[in-house]
Structures are given as C-alpha cells and as structure tokens.
Automatic annotation (TrEMBL):
PANTHER family for the chain: CYTOCHROME P450, CYTOCHROME P450 FAMILY MEMBER
Protein name per UniProt: Cytochrome P450
Membrane topology label: Single-pass membrane protein
Organism (species): Linum tenue
Cofactors (names): heme
Keywords, ordered alphabetically: Heme, Iron, Membrane, Metal-binding, Monooxygenase, Oxidoreductase, Transmembrane, Transmembrane helix
Listed GO MF terms: heme binding; iron ion binding; monooxygenase activity; oxidoreductase activity, acting on paired donors, with incorporation or reduction of molecular oxygen
Length: 138
C-alpha cells in the first residue's frame, strides 16, 4: 500500500504516450491520424474528481481494497493496455525487497534540510535530492 501510494503521488514516468492510428473523435475533440497523445500520469493520479478531496495527501490506506478498490483506470504508474510496462511485476518485487532490507537494517527520517520539490524531467525526480537522517537499527 505504501509503494502503491508512492507510485500514485510520484509516478517515475511522466507520460503514457500513444499515436492515433486513425482519425478519432473523442467528445468534442478530433484527434487526427498520426498525432501523439500524451497522458500526464501525475495529473490523472491526483485528480480530486477521481480520487476524492484528499487526492494530494499521502494516504496508503486508500489502497486497502487493492488497486481495483481505488480509482481503477486512473491508476497508471506502469501505463495501461497492451503496451503496459513489461517490468512492472519485477519492479514491484524489487521495491518490496529493497524497502524490507532498508527497514530491517536502518531507521531513517527526513533531514531538516530536505526541500520537497518533485521535478519533471525524463522521469519525475526530486529536484533537490532526498536528504535523510539514517541510523543503524541495531
Ligand atoms: C517503478 C518502476 C517502473 C515504472 C514506474 C515503469 C513505468 C513504465 C511505463 C509508464 C511504461 C509505458 C507503458 C505504456 O505505454 O502503457 C513502461 C514501459 C516499459 N517498461 Fe517499465 N517501469 C518500471 C520498471 C521497469 C523495469 C524494472 C523494466 C525491465 C526489467 C521495465 C521495462 C519496460 C519496457 C520494456 C517497457 C516497454 C513496453 C512496451 O512498449 O511494450 N520497466 N514502463
């Protein structure tokens, strides 16, 4: 739940990109064949209409019912459809292993010098780094 909520608020990939293979009419918008459509993952995953008024808050409990208990199609950190990330299950396993090892061996907290500033580059990354205070757990 903590990993899912982190991937919701800070999805590493900025966009899911698709090319229109034919002219498409979507509500009042016409998308011509050949146009690239970029779906901004962060924005979809923080839309209060889809996620509720606390959309901007870190609340892992929103995934208590699993991913499908959340806002379903609006949760796309690994993309969606036939070209969804092929590494998603591997990535989730890596994240669980790494997080477990860190939590087993260290206690950590945010340093007073940390400034929260997610930056949009090729991937979403902390613009000022992540400053932590780390102690050995035993
Ligand atoms: C937290 C880690 C990761 C995130 C957030 C992530 C996210 C994404 C996203 C958003 C896409 C585009 C999906 C779409 O267009 O619908 C993608 C595609 C892809 N990812 Fe990942 N990914 C991660 C880790 C990995 C890992 C560990 C691997 C390989 C071991 C991997 C391999 C790929 C490949 C090959 C594609 C292209 C799939 C295709 O076009 O058919 N990813 N990923």
């Amino acid at each position: 739940m903590v990993i899912q909520e982190t991937l919701r608020l800070y999805p590493p990939a900025v966009f899911v990109v698709r090319e229109a293979l034919e002219d498409i009419k979507f509500k009042h918008i016409t998308i011509p064949k050949g146009m690239n459509v970029q779906v901004p993952i962060s924005i979809v995953q923080q839309d209060p209409e889809l996620w509720g008024p606390d959309a901007h808050l870190f609340n892992p409990e929103r995934f208590a019912g699993g991913i499908l208990g959340g806002a379903q199609a609006a949760y796309i950190p690994f993309g969606v459809g036939p070209r969804v990330c092929v590494g998603q299950h591997f990535a989730m396993m890596e994240l669980k292993v790494i997080l477990s090892l860190i939590l087993l061996n260290f206690r950590f907290s945010i340093s007073p010098s940390y400034v929260h500033s997610p930056g949009f580059a090729l991937v979403v990354q902390p613009a000022n780094g992540v400053w932590l205070l780390i102690e050995r757990a035993n």
